[in-house]
Amino acid sequence: MTVTVETLEKLERKITLTVPVTAIQSEVEARLRKMARTVKMDGFRPGKVPMNVVSQRYGYSVQYEVLNDKVGEAFSVAANEAKVRVAGQPRISEKEGAPEGELTFDAIFEVYPEVKLADLASTEVEKLTAEVSDAAIDKTVDILRKQRRTFAQRAQDAAAQDGDRVTIDFAGKIDGEAFEGGKAEDFQFLVGEGQMLKEFEDAVRGMKSGESKTFPLAFPADYHGKDVAGKTADFLVTIKKIEAANLPEVNEALAKSLGIADATVEGLRADIRKNLEREVKFRLLARNKQAAMDALVAKAELDLPQSIVQSEVERLKDGARADLKQRGIKDADKAPIPDDIFRPQAEQRVRLGLVVAEVVRTNELHAKPEQIKAHIEELAASYERPEDVSRWYYSDNQRMAEVEAVVIEGNVADFVLSKAKVTAKAISFEELMGQA
Fold this sequence. Notes:
alpha+beta; Alpha-Beta Plaits; Chitinase A, domain 3; four-stranded antiparallel β-sheet; extended
């Protein structure tokens, strides 16, 4: 048959569909007959309900299902015949004035856009590099030591200092009134490690066991407790105990306690270097991939299918509601979330997906089996039983699809970096790890 596709606006198209009434009626009758063989109703034995009763009870819903199916089939046939790439779901509405014996519908839908890619040879991309320094290894060793520190009570006249663990009672008031969360007994925290607000730590530092002090504390305007955010409280704090931290020595015993195969200081540092280099590699890949993707998308020209953007908005909203529910927010699944909050992010994701798909298609950058295998092996290498992790990936199609997507993105990033004007930039380990 000849299908006429009408262009409405940019990516929007319209096709008129025709469905014979007889086709709907015969399918409705067939489904009702099939249903009558098993349907259960009071007063009738299973399979013995008269057809007119079945039709009266279920006829409307079955007709609705059949109509949706037939219109969907007609749209699929018409779209294939017209060779259009449909983006999202069509909006279908019935037309009036159809010829006798027929139903006609208008199907309005969007098509995937033409993607015009920029000349990558003129595109500039900054590629980051970083090295694992001895200082980074020293810092990691210190973190491991702190994780295994022990505490011993200080003398009665010793003053609290950074690194000490203090046990305190405190009570806070705002305008003379106590507030929720402003009082605690036998509360412990480590001085100088950012576990408390700076004013609180400054007040406790230098105090001795048995001492009490009253001091003002101004809560930041963006403090997580909205009832006290931006307000100033007066706190009374009493030091009940001060304990000094004892860090384990960096020796073979520490290496052994950490499960290092070569239980020596050199083996410990070598193991830390290996792990840090793996983390640096993944972070550099992620940062450089993002830079390549940003450069690729920045100069690409395309119209966005709004139906796909809206689907992405809904997906992001569902994710936000799920996050709220996990945090214990009541009725999170009904939380009103405006589309505008997620629309820019949704548009960026859709744009990136369409551009990447075009680059993959035109340059044959699909993930190869050996690439997928290598990536899984690399992910599994940092675990104690890599073969179990590999098996975990291979046992689930969704996880394998995620791995394939990552490999494809890597192929695209490598392709962009191979064609673009690349400028290397060395950054420190701390900056890469977000510690600067």
